[in-house]
């Protein structure tokens, strides 16, 4: 039913799960002797985080931040708002930020600065998607699933006007769906 709104599937469910297994194996190695605090950035990172943590075979603690900068738009407002803060202190912790996409980079830039200010011991980023053409600030992830082209993508956590997060794949919406 939802697929009628999709122009093109960019990344299939199977491709996503294979990549998550690779990322999980790498993170298992890199965090073997640590107890990282994995911070999921709501709401978009929820499906990715849920699948990724099951592939990390070492001790991890989970927490969540809800930040928002897009509202119902397809372009970042540039102003990052904390909707829900962490329950845990990051001071002295190895923080692993889990994101669905880096586009302008402003959301993660804000979170990295915040966690540095709060004295995290180390801060790394794992993102399912990276859209380098969207970048407005100099920011790189430590672990990247897929590069995506210069298009507004939806599915597997990513929304347009709060819809399509529940698609199991990543796709591009048909032009007529956007209400510019
Ligand atoms: O690199 P940027 O340009 O900052 O964009 C990336 C951010 O934008 C989206 O979140 P959004 O603010 O739409 O909230 P959501 O996760 O609740 O959809 C996405 O989930 C990332 O957190
Ligand atoms: O391409 C995108 N799709 C959905 N949400 C987003 N947030 C930043 N970029 C995107």
TrEMBL record:
Report the subcellular localization: Cytoplasm
Which CDD domains is this protein grouped with?
Answer: PRTases_typeI
Q: In which pathway does it act?
A: Purine metabolism; GMP biosynthesis via salvage pathway; GMP from guanine: step 1/1; Purine metabolism; IMP biosynthesis via salvage pathway; IMP from hypoxanthine: step 1/1
Q: Give EC number(s), comma-separated.
A: 2.4.2.8
Residue ranges annotated as coiled coil are none
Key word Ribosomal protein present? no
Which terms does the record give in the GO molecular function aspect? glycosyltransferase activity
Source domain of life is Bacteria
Required co-factor?
Mg(2+)
Chemical reaction(s) catalysed: GMP + diphosphate = guanine + 5-phospho-alpha-D-ribose 1-diphosphate; IMP + diphosphate = hypoxanthine + 5-phospho-alpha-D-ribose 1-diphosphate
Q: Write down the top EC class of this protein.
A: transferase
Listed A to Z, the keywords are: Cytoplasm, Glycosyltransferase, Magnesium, Metal-binding, Nucleotide-binding, Purine salvage, Transferase
Q: Where is the Phosphoribosyltransferase domain?
A: 14-160
Family under the similarity heading: Belongs to the purine/pyrimidine phosphoribosyltransferase family.
Function of this protein? Answer: Purine salvage pathway enzyme that catalyzes the transfer of the ribosyl-5-phosphate group from 5-phospho-alpha-D-ribose 1-diphosphate (PRPP) to the N9 position of the 6-oxopurines hypoxanthine and guanine to form the corresponding ribonucleotides IMP (inosine 5'-monophosphate) and GMP (guanosine 5'-monophosphate), with the release of PPi.
Please identify the protein, giving its name as recorded: Hypoxanthine phosphoribosyltransferase
